[in-house]
Design a protein that fits this description.
Blueprint (H helix, E strand, L loop, with lengths): L2 H6 L2 H9 L5 H19 L2 E2 L4 H18 L9 E5 L26 H8 L3 E6 L11 E2 L3 E2 L15 H8 L6 E5 L6 H5 L3 E4 L19 E6 L2 H11 L29 E4 L13 H13 L4 E4 L6 H24 L2 H4 L4 H10 L4 H21 L5 E5 L15 E2 L2 E2 L11 H6 L3 E8 L5 E7 L5 H15 L12
Parallel strand pairs: 2-3, 9-10, 9-11
Antiparallel strand pairs: 1-3, 4-5, 6-8, 7-8, 7-14, 11-15, 12-13, 14-15
Helix pairs in contact: 3-4, 8-15, 10-12, 10-13
Length: 479
């Protein structure tokens, strides 16, 4: 089979072809290495790529293992690059920071070990912003990740390398993480799917496991079947994460479309004018919603009875407390502080001003917002917002300072639209809604009731069947 055909296959189909021995893992590896060589120099999505000869040898070993023992798991022989915030034994994990430029972990993160157990072959990492801060994957170690649809534009973040690599068919699947939209923004900007799971769905390797976490690990993919496949590998209880959920992850493996007739969607939009948007974003998202209403879904505008600024303030306090504490050990060393990005220094220095009472008050606000969202689910099956407030911006910028005439007062204010989903703790998916006149993609967030990832996957599968978004290709892949 031509390598160009192999990289265009869905991950589910490709994995099946390997298991059926219709194609070898070596052929699949070679095809993706060729695709990386062809496209990665222009976009810097894949970093710390391992030696191709070693990867081909591992793929050949996977073929022998398959012949002798059968498949190791559902990802047997698939090449995979891990987000560069997650520990990978024997492969550099830099976090995009000069402080960790040469760090090679001895052990894998929990979800990385599960990828290996499922049969994936780790080829390297995907690029991120320094320390994962911000939704533009640029750092002093590897440089800028550029958009799959226009390399002059940003690829998003913090799972930016993952989103771009997926869109350009350099990997069949991609893992990511999400605190402030990091699975949703790059998905929206590269016309792929990103799913932020509920807290505890995917066990996470962190130094602290009891405080409420805002960051989660989750899947990215080009189609719903692939998204469910990867989530089924990532999810499942692990005693090292006491809050991990015990539901059988096989429930996500093969999502089936649900009937859209009667689906109730609450369209939050710009939150009553609170959120500024670049012209065209709301229009594209509302056009995407017509794909639901055309199949019998009921889309109704809704303004939650909650102060959106209070949601933002609570998130900022909790983020400063959690992120600042994580980075504080580096900040305390003046030599290390000197090479930390300004946004990282800001998070620590703001976090140092907080009290335990501040954190508790922010968590109380978060709880109240969760109950508000819970009440909305008595009227709606899902809630909808845009996945970003701007289209991909110039790759040379650090972050947008102004949106539609309104100044942004922090480095992440321009991504405020993702915060209601994060702070709710509920699962959120980003669905592609098409391209603007400049050919740049956008996405639509759907928020589901707590722990209902299966419901989101069923909705996404129906939306995919209705729109065929997975058939839209970046310009460089169009024949």
């Amino acid at each position: 089979m031509p390598s160009s055909d192999l990289v265009m296959m869905r991950a589910t189909d490709l994995a099946r072809a390997i298991r059926d021995r219709a194609v070898s893992a070596r052929e699949v590896m070679q095809a993706h290495l060729d695709q990386i060589a062809r496209h990665n120099p222009a976009v810097t999505a894949i970093v710390s790529l391992r030696d191709p000869d070693l990867l081909l040898a591992e793929a050949e070993a996977a073929d022998r293992d398959l012949a002798e023992n059968g498949p190791r798991g559902p990802l047997h022989g698939l090449p995979h690059a891990v987000k560069d915030l997650s520990a990978t034994a024997g492969i550099r994990t830099t976090q995009g920071s000069p402080l960790f430029r040469d760090t090679v972990p001895e052990a894998d993160a929990i979800h990385v070990a599960r990828l290996k157990q499922a049969g994936a072959i780790l080829i390297g990492k995907t690029n991120v912003p320094e320390f994962g801060l911000g939704s533009h994957s640029t750092n002093p170690v590897f440089g800028v990740t550029r958009n799959a649809y226009d390399p002059a534009k940003a690829g998003g973040g913090s799972s930016g390398g993952a989103g771009v690599a997926l869109a350009l068919r350099m990997v069949p699947l991609a893992d990511g993480s999400d605190h402030g939209g990091s699975l949703r923004n790059p998905a929206a900007w590269n016309n792929v799917l990103g799913l932020r799971p509920a807290a505890g769905r995917v066990p996470n390797s962190t130094d602290e496991v009891f405080l409420p976490q805002l960051g989660v690990v989750g899947p990215m993919a080009r189609c719903t079947a692939d998204l469910g496949l990867l989530l089924s590998v990532q999810a499942g209880y692990d005693p090292r994460t006491p809050t991990a959920l015990r539901q059988d992850p096989a429930a996500f493996a093969a999502p089936q479309p649900r009937a859209l007739k009667g689906l109730r969607i609450g369209w939050i939009g710009d939150f009553g004018g609170h959120l500024p948007f670049e012209p065209g974003v709301l229009d594209l998202c509302e056009a995407g919603l017509t794909a639901f209403s055309a199949h019998g879904a009921v889309v109704e505008p809704v303004r939650p009875a909650f102060d959106p600024e209070a949601i933002w303030r609570a998130w900022v306090v909790l983020r400063q407390g959690l992120t600042g504490a994580t980075l504080a050990a580096h900040w305390r060393d003046p030599a290390k502080r000197a090479v930390m990005k300004p946004e990282a220094v800001w998070e620590v220095e703001q976090g140092r001003t907080l009290t335990a009472f501040d954190l508790h008050a922010a968590s109380v606000t978060r709880t109240a917002w969760y109950h508000c969202v819970r009440g909305l689910f008595e009227r709606f099956d899902v809630l909808a917002l845009p996945a970003a407030q701007v289209f991909p911006f110039d790759a040379g910028e650090t972050w947008p300072r102004r949106i539609n005439g309104r100044d942004m007062d922090t480095y992440h204010r321009w991504m405020e639209v993702v915060v209601p989903g994060t702070l709710s703790g509920c699962p959120v998916i980003s669905l592609p809604v098409g391209l603007n006149p400049a050919g740049l993609p956008m996405g639509l967030q759907l928020i589901a009731p707590n722990q209902d990832e299966a419901g989101l996957l069923a909705i996404a599968a129906a939306y995919e069947a209705a729109t065929g978004f997975d058939r839209t290709l970046p310009p460089v892949l169009r024949g």
